[in-house]
Amino acid sequence: MPIINRIAELADDVKGWRHDIHQNPELLYDVHRTAGLVAEKLRAFGCDDVVTGLGRTGVVGVIKGRSDRTGRAIGLRADMDALPILEATDLPYKSRNAGKMHACGHDGHTAMLLGAARYLTETRNFDGTAVVIFQPAEEGGGGGLAMVEDGLMERFNVQEVYGMHNAPGMPVGSFGLRPGPLMAAADRFDIDIEGRGGHAAKPHQCIDPVVAGSQIVVALQTIAARTIDPLDSVVVSVTCFHGGDAYNVIPQKVRLSGTIRALREEVRAGAEARLREIVEFTARAHRAKAEVHYYRGYPVTENHPSQTDFAAEIAGTIVGADKVDIAMPPMMGAEDFSYMLLARPGAFIFAGNGDSAGLHHPQYDFNDELIPYGMSYWAKLVETAMPV
Questions:
Q1: What mean pLDDT do residues 32-61 have?
Q2: Domains, the chain, ranges and CATH?
Q3: Is 0.85 surpassed by the pTM of this model?
Q4: Residue 2: its pLDDT value, please?
Q5: Phi, psi torsion values for 28, nearest 5 degrees
Q6: Strands annotated E in the chain
Q7: Which of left, alpha, beta for 275 (phi over 0: left; psi -120 to 50: alpha)?
Q8: C-alpha 381: how far from chain center
Q9: Chain-centre distance of CA 26, in angstroms?
Q10: Distance between alpha carbon 28 and the CA centroid of its chain, in Å?
Q11: Hey, how many other C-beta atoms are within 10 angstroms of the C-beta on 2?
Q12: pLDDT class for 3, splitting at 50, 70, 90?
């Protein structure tokens, strides 16, 4: 079926909410204005319960259907936080907070789920409970984990959970997903290398950590090229190299920093172990000392097969099965909805944002034409999963 008529009528209101959120971006857990707006609207819509402060600043709305014969409850999640980016657009609703920007579309995600919540509270054409989840701190803060650890699933009896993200480059009116790994685990590392500093004219009296660090950077590329099965995906990127501040001084210490990403936990663990080996023995070969500080980040975002099939079916009823890519290539970006998928079965889906700038780009903007498709997806998912 096409866009739900009532949702089409609500689209302009939702667009206005989106622009307001876009103008007032907030970072990580400091989303007090956004969370307040969300809670205020959920109460005004007539949600049966609105809970704030879950996972520090998360908001949850509970919407009961016309009946509850089965006791089912399905969670729908949107993220609220922005990015520390200076916006480079001329939009009339451009960010008012310098250095903060909704450059990933979380303003659109939040607005679409709010619109779906309004529709679901008006119609209640389902048997069970819809739990709308508005999460802080997706952009590096682990807000999804914070909400799970705060009892999200148990408190609201969530049995399945679904998420959505916009996708620049995909046509508006199209969706994409896949069963199994969809997005990568993302870890970070710092490598501190210590040698013996001295005058650059007397390198033989020094132990040069710059040379040791340079060899480590090159050697780390063999993790993907010579350690991991070529049929597996892994990224090892050294993105920072800090050391020294003079032309004629060999520094005492340098620091390397970067990221490892993988689509399987075994690959992730293997890449970390090999990084530690390479760092230790390469530094030793150069008579330097090295220490690795490794930080585990978001786990793999892994869709559950039956919920993925169901999500694809719902998307197909809205845009047609031919506009739903059910074998979308996985990507090496990360997403903390992964924590919710570890806690409950569910699926994460991408919705086309059209020919826009890429995510995290200072000229990016969420495409308002996507709003009725996203809202319809949420509404039909609830109504189909829990029919009256």
A1: 98
A2: 5-183+300-385 (3.40.630.10), 185-295 (3.30.70.360)
A3: yes
A4: 77
A5: 50, -125
A6: 49-54, 58-64, 73-79, 129-135, 160-167, 175-176, 180-183, 185-194, 198-199, 234-242, 249-250, 253-262, 289-295, 301-303, 324-325, 346-352
A7: alpha
A8: 21
A9: 16
A10: 12
A11: 13
A12: confident
